[in-house]
Amino acid sequence: MTTATARTKPPRGSASLRHRLADRGIDSQLLFLVPAIVFILALFVYPFAYGFGLTLQPSEETVDRWGGGILANYVRFFGDAFTFESVWLTARLAIPAALFNVLAAIPLAIKLKHRFRGKRLISTLLVLPITLGTVLTAQGLLIFAGRQGWLNQALLNLGIIDQPLELVHNYIGVLLSLIISGFPFAFLLISSYLSGIDPSLDRAARSLGAGWGQRFFRITLPLLAPGLATTFILTFVLAFSVFPSATLVGDPSGSTRVLAVVAYRFFGEQFDYPMASTVAIMMGLAELVVVAIVLLGRSFLYKGSTGGKG
Amino acid sequence: MTTQNVDRRSQEGAPGATDSGPLSLPDPPVKNPGADRSPGDKALSAQPSTWVAWAGVAAFLVLLMGILVSVVTDSFGRAWYAQWLPTEFTASWYAEAWTRFELGHVILVTLVVAISVVALSILIGVPASYALARRQFPFKRAVTALFLLPVIIPPITFGIPLATVMYNFGLGRTVLAVILVNLVPSVPFVIITMTPFIEQINPAIENAARMSGARMRHVFLRILGPILVPGILAAAILVLVRTVGMFELTYLVSGPGTDTLVVSIFRAMTSAGGSEPRPLVSAMAFLYTAMMLVTLIIALRFVNPTQLVARVRDGDDE
User: Fold this and answer.
1) In Å, how far are A2, B98, B123, B156 from A34, measured between CA atoms?
2) Cross-chain CB nearest to B131 (options A1, A29, A195)
3) Which residue among A145, A242, B120, B235 is least crowded, i.e. fewest CB within 10 A of its CB?
């Protein structure tokens, strides 16, 4: 391998070498890819295919109750309120959480773009939750925002509320935990996208008399839109597969019975592996649908922004 | 990946930005009356927006600090119900958690898993990202998409079939299974972060080395290796943090004796027959966060992101 490349390389420049390799397609350096491809085939593609095969081998119990032959698992998924409702429950949590994280991070990233005292401190504090982890966040929410927690005590003593707020063991608890873990991430990403926008565009618009709103909506936002779509997708993916907080600070048998919880029930409690795989795969599909919609929207947005510039 | 590009750009743009300091300062629409007067109402609306933003930050930080401080207080407190503070303070919860949950063993497992995952994913991922960054070959797009999938798909979607396979092979509840399962998102993650990093390095450096007679092995060890070290370290830290924090996948295949710290905290919180005393869980959760912070601080000592960018830029300039 080394001799071949060493021999071919010196006489020609990198460009022509690349062209020839592109023509030939494969060469010994591609051996570098082999471990990664073997790995992904063995640990990702094979299990996935196996899992898909499992979904077509429903347990007898499922076939008896739901019918549908080899598709019984899917019949059950769409027919059983326990599983199908959780698609809606998951979307109801993940979409608002991701939207909030992105929308709240935009103004903050813009405000924190300028230099001022204490910027470092605030940026550090905003990023701190990454080290907290879901479990400490959940535990902290239970203690801090629980019925007798500091938050409720303070609000009661200030006379803002009469009754303790129900902030945990329900939908709000999970939403809060998703915001705490997802927001710093969105903030970091959007900040970096924002710093990639050439500030002279903004200055040029200002010198032409554009106001704050015009500059934001006609310049910053269109340039930021692809980054926003990416950020939305990434926070959405995180929020969509929420499991620990849905169990710990949510109401896992009621309003926060998300798909992950359902899949785990089948896997770890009922040992119905085919059904667990079915739920897992449907979950991936549902997520990809949302991601595809956002990507489609992004392609429209992007065209719009270039059109505007031209 | 984008951060690196963006960082570079912002660094290059930095001198310009400082030159125009007086120009960019009036950005909060207080000064610079010329530009903001005509759409006056918008300038006014920008002012409250600042306050809203700060109020949002304040609310977020109050929540954050409340969560952190209440867990720490709880972990040191005794008999804390409806009062503002616990009536007594003690460190005994930590001692109890340590013996009750065999935390020494749990932390050891966590470290073994994390370090193995980091090492293996670097070993598998970096060569692959070199090939992806430098070569064009048939089905390259398909291969790239294949590496992207485990990062986009929810961990549970591939985790459950994977865990089923693991149990079928008799690997269930072993450390090996925990390591293998955690590799699935980690290797693609390394590939995704390292590919743009390698693309940034000017291929002329390697070509020059080859022209001077260096073999592939030497090119890798003496030329590319040192340039790649900062990127590899950064990727390694991110993988480390992700692996230590990874709950979903580990939980599927681990069992007593092979639980990582997050999973054993979760089990303590949800254990059947009434969960464990709350302060016990708080103590463990705080240990977890402390461990994470120490890891990050140590890691950031060795990896300076700005230095990383500077080094790559040196390479580009040559």
Assistant:
1) 17, 43, 12, 26
2) A29
3) B120
